[in-house]
Amino acid sequence: MNKEIGQLIKAAEQAGAVVTRARNGHWRVVNPATGRSTQIPATPGGACRPILNARTRMRRIGIAL
Fold first, then answer.
1. Which of 4, 5, 24, 41 has the fewest C-beta atoms lying within 10 Å of its C-beta?
2. What is the average per-residue pLDDT within 28-43?
3. Number of folded domains in the chain?
């Protein structure tokens, strides 16, 4: 697992999200309070944009990091 993705998953779990592995290999992040979910990439590639996009998607479902 990528270091940044691992940190992002750990922060989401500490914020109250439920993080599981999706069937397509990515990570599924669910906000149990609202039931909304999103996926973040398992391997973000070489750029920082995928990490920033994942943080934005989590913020939109109500996970404050």
1. 24
2. 94
3. 1
8-20: b or e for each residue (b if 16 or more CB lie within 10 Å)? bbeebeeeebeee
**What percent of the chain clears pLDDT 70, i.e. is strictly above it?**
98
Q: Give the predicted TM-score (pTM) of the model.
A: 0.87
Among residues 60, 4, 53, the alpha carbon closest in space to that of 34 is found at: 60
Give residue 50's domain range.
3-60
Question: Number of C-alpha atoms within 13 angstroms, CB side, residue 16?
Answer: 11
Cα distance between residue 18 and residue 48, in whole Å: 24
Given a cut of 90, whether residue 44 has pLDDT beyond it is no
**Is 7 contained in some domain?**
yes
